[in-house]
Amino acid sequence: MKNIAVIMAMDSEAKPLLEKLKINPDQAEKIDDHLPMKVYKTQYHQHNISIIISGECKRNKVQNVGTAPAVISTITAIKDFNADFIINAGTAGGFKKRGADIGKVYTVETTVFHDRRIPIPGYQDYGTYKSQHDIAKKFATLLGIETGIISTGDSLDMSPEDEKLIESNLALLKDMEAAAIAWVTDQYSIPTLFLKSVTDIVDGEHPTEEEFFANLKLASENLGEKLIELIELIEKI
Ligand code: ADE
């Protein structure tokens, strides 16, 4: 039995998972009176599962995407819910030149940041903070999916500077949370698996934000299916 925490940014990404686990979306608990994150707790396949979602921004009434909320969710998972296995599940942009396709789900072997550029000796590697996740390949094989490198930044679009770093790291995927979550779990040495479903092709012809919303439902459904399969497999590691 494990204490598994599933860290997710958006309600719509989590909807299919909640449906599969027969969880009522209206029955979330808050993690703190001041913070917008919410948690759903359940048991599945003898594991304790906490699904932590970043919640809504109190000022802008949109979902709390990005690295800062993801860090709070992760630290809460560890300190309040004793998580000993962390899954970051969400959507990502994909690069078609590396084989990414809309709706395809991947595990992640390497996380890296592309928007923490600090050109001071020693700080360059701290900024990019590349971390390896050895369990990704094993789970990719068990799930029958591929694995790749994800690059994280706090913007949905991609500046020329971001693009240079993403390219130099040969990233297959681009998101707004993974490397920040990896930084936290690295401090605590907690095994972390990233499951990412592609909503948009970053190097394609369509505007990212349009493609993102057009494919969010499909990508989230595929993500939910693989998440259930993954949780059912966790005993087998
Ligand atoms: N999440 C989904 N698509 C994304 C993209 N293109 N960039 C960053 N995060 C994303």
From TrEMBL:
Give every Nucleoside phosphorylase domain span.
Answer: 4-231
Which CDD domains does the entry link to?
Answer: MTAN
What name does this protein carry? Answer: 5'-methylthioadenosine nucleosidase
Q: In which domain of life is the source organism classified? A: Bacteria
Tell me which Pfam families the record gives: PNP_UDP_1 (PF01048)
| Top-level taxonomy | Bacteria, Pseudomonadati, Bdellovibrionota, Bacteriovoracia, Bacteriovoracales
